[in-house]
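Deliverable D2.4 — example input (structure tokens):
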């Protein structure tokens, strides 16, 4: 129904507010509607904090109205004890007669169980309202549960003529080039991206060559975890980074074990090319600056034409998604 779609869109808007804070939990928003008016809404604001359904229910001033209301939530309510009690128990306790769900939870602890508990309690359940939009919103959570790896963003900057790095020169083992490809606006965009994702991964050479901070300094306060892929090299102690040895599968396994649901691969060409060659990526972002170099390290070739091109001042952002994420 049209109204169901409208209320679910609001739930999705609310859910997105938890990006960068709710992980490793999913992004969930909830809206409570009575007589075609919203009387309560909420979202999962932070890992370990109350779930969206609880916040929405608590936001309703007249709790008696819950008995005549419909709860809209983009993800199946949980039916197990985790950091917080199961949401289905509160829904049943408050005698909410109808629940509209965007998608089922891929977490095996929940999948279908929340719906089953509600139905057994006599609650009317409507499923798959704006399911595609719900799937896209929780692409990180779904990938981690179904593919046992984080959602992978590949990101690099390149010049207008396709170079991503200078041909480095050494002087007493110190790289002396200091350069920028993109404008200030894209640097803020990059830090915003870092605020939304759980981790950043670079290669060992990038660490040694650039000594990057990889922090979010320009957008909010959320900071990603920083990882360095160093093959089988021995590494020096560095409290700012976590080092991972081994092949690409070892890297992904380690990130999975650490409950990293999304990672931005910001390494040099060698690291990026390994992910491309293994076809292990979900989205690619290429930041194209308004500069040209006479020579340099060529950027990786794109696996397909961009799905989206965004212009920010005099720079471009090219985005490619795998088919399943479009």
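Example output (designed residues):
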């Amino acid at each position: 129904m049209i109204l169901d779609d409208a209320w679910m869109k609001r739930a999705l808007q609310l859910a997105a507010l938890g990006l960068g804070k709710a992980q490793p939990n999913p992004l969930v928003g909830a809206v409570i509607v009575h007589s075609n008016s919203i009387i309560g809404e909420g979202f999962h604001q932070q890992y370990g904090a109350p779930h969206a359904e609880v916040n929405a229910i608590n936001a309703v001033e007249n709790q008696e109205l819950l008995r005549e209301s419909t709860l809209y939530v983009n993800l199946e309510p949980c039916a197990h004890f985790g950091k917080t009690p199961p949401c289905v128990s509160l829904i049943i306790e408050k005698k909410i007669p109808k629940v509209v769900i965007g998608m089922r939870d891929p977490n095996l602890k929940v999948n279908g169980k929340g719906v089953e508990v509600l139905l057994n309690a006599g609650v009317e359940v409507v499923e798959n309202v704006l399911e595609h939009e719900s799937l896209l919103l929780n692409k990180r959570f779904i990938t981690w549960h179904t593919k046992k790896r984080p959602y992978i963003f590949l990101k690099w900057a390149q010049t207008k003529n396709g170079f991503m790095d200078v041909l480095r020169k050494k002087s007493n083992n110190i790289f002396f080039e200091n350069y920028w490809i993109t404008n200030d606006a894209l640097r803020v965009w990059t830090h915003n991206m870092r605020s939304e994702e759980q981790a950043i991964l670079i290669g060992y050479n990038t660490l040694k060559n650039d000594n990057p901070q990889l922090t979010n300094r320009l957008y909010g306060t959320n900071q990603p975890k920083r990882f360095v892929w160093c093959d089988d090299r021995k590494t020096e102690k560095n409290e700012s980074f976590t080092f991972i040895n081994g092949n690409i599968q070892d890297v992904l396994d380690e990130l999975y074990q650490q409950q990293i649901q999304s990672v931005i691969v910001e390494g040099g060409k060698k690291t990026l090319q390994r992910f491309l060659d293994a076809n292990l990526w979900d989205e690619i972002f290429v930041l194209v600056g308004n500069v040209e170099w006479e020579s340099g390290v060529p950027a990786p070739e794109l696996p397909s034409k961009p799905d989206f091109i965004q212009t920010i001042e005099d720079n471009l952002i090219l985005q490619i998604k795998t088919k399943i994420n479009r």
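Confidence is low (pLDDT under 50) at residues 171-176.
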